[in-house]
Amino acid sequence: MKARAAALDDADPLAALRDRFALPAGVVYLDGNSLGALPRHVPDRVASAVQTEWGEHLITAWNRDGWVDLPVRTGERIAALIGAAPGTVRVTDSTSVNLFKVLSAALSLKGNRVTVVSDSGNFPTDLYVAHGLERAHPGVTLKVVAPEAVAVAVDEGVDVLMLTEVDYRTGRRHDMAALTARAHERGALVIWDLAHSAGALAVDLEGVRADFAVGCGYKFLNGGPGAPAFYYIAERHQAAVDPLLAGWFGHAAPFAFETAFRPAEGADRLRVGTPPVLSMVALDAALDIFDGLDMGAVQAKGRALTDFFIACVDPFAAELGLELASPRDPAARGSHVSLRHEQAYPVMQALIAAGVIGDMRAPDILRFGFAPLYVGFSDVLSAAGTLETILRQESWDRPEFHARKVVT
Ligand SMILES: Cc1ncc(COP(=O)(O)O)c(C=O)c1O
Ligand SMILES: Nc1c(O)cccc1C(=O)C[C@H](N)C(=O)O
Fold this sequence. Notes:
Layout: H1 2-10, E1 28-29, H2 42-57, H3 61-64, H4 70-81, E2 89-91, H5 95-110, E3 114-119, H6 124-136, E4 140-145, H7 150-156, E5 160-164, H8 176-185, E6 189-193, H9 205-208, E7 212-215, E8 230-233, H10 235-238, H11 277-286, H12 295-317, E9 323-324, E10 336-340, H13 344-353, E11 356-357, E12 359-361, E13 365-369, H14 377-393, H15 399-402
Parallel strand pairs: 1-11, 3-4, 3-5, 5-6, 6-7
Antiparallel strand pairs: 2-8, 7-8, 9-10, 10-13, 12-13
Bound molecules: pyridoxal-5'-phosphate (PLP) and (2S)-2-amino-4-(2-amino-3-hydroxyphenyl)-4-oxobutanoic acid.
């Protein structure tokens, strides 16, 4: 396996990108699907935004340093990574808030009686947002089905299909093209949450004719903790969207300070308030690493890394109480692999203490994210080896590894 890892690293066309990240020595970082690593050049860019732009240019920086255009500029850069047309993606707010905005837009396009279909593998915040809108609109019914039952639920009747492409727990990937086409045949609108896709998979929003989408800036896009998220509105819907969460940055003329809301042209109408400039500068800078990258190559490396991890773990998995929770077919999963283990919490704490950082999702999932830009095949082998040692020696069974932390 060692020779195979070395050969795969040697043949990796993206291997050089790793040097662009400031990863601590001795750490194998397998949680870029939750918080992406720090690109080396980002601290200087943020420091300059603080010291020069904020410190010296003060409020003139909104125009002089282009702060006001950041949601648009950064949105256009993300659009290029997810197969979206220019003018359809904007960066702002959190994924949850953006989902509220696009789901309320989709509901309003569908009239008074609307059935929303989602699945139980969806990230809880998505379901909370949908439940909130269901409570606010008497004509809205939210139907939550098992992930495998989505296609049947679509056939039974749907007005808005709201799904996350890659399941945060299992890594199972929905077939975006097939489900979008199926929902469209029934006249429905389709919203995709790309939290675990953007920056890792070759998403093609225009190709699949998605209606709306949202996604995170802090995962595979490496925008930093709490980085703003993005939303997508297909061009064909933009003029018809009348924002429920209307705010002055979504107004046609924010600095005219009119009392009545007039939506901005195009996708900008779903912007709400002042952009978080420092976080946006970090995200914008982080996106430099994607310049000129082929997302097909990024996705291919993610598949190779996850395949290799499964191959490394397979020989000892059953004996040591591990069960693969992710699909074996690489085309049917995203860029993370999940393993079930009865003692997932202390096992993950022991892994972190040994320098292998993944995370745990209750009740029993060990989750390992393989960010294609900075994880190598030797890292994968070393993580699998550490996991085997911890399980064989039962070194996870120490009081300090059982103590619960807030963020898991
Ligand atoms: C699929 C998915 N959607 C939404 C979110 C939440 O995003 P935010 O915290 O930006 O609202 C996450 C992770 O936090 C997620 O995994
Ligand atoms: N957003 C996070 C946070 O603020 C703290 C810890 C984790 C997160 C996450 O992003 C979790 C992630 N969406 C997940 O897939 O589990």
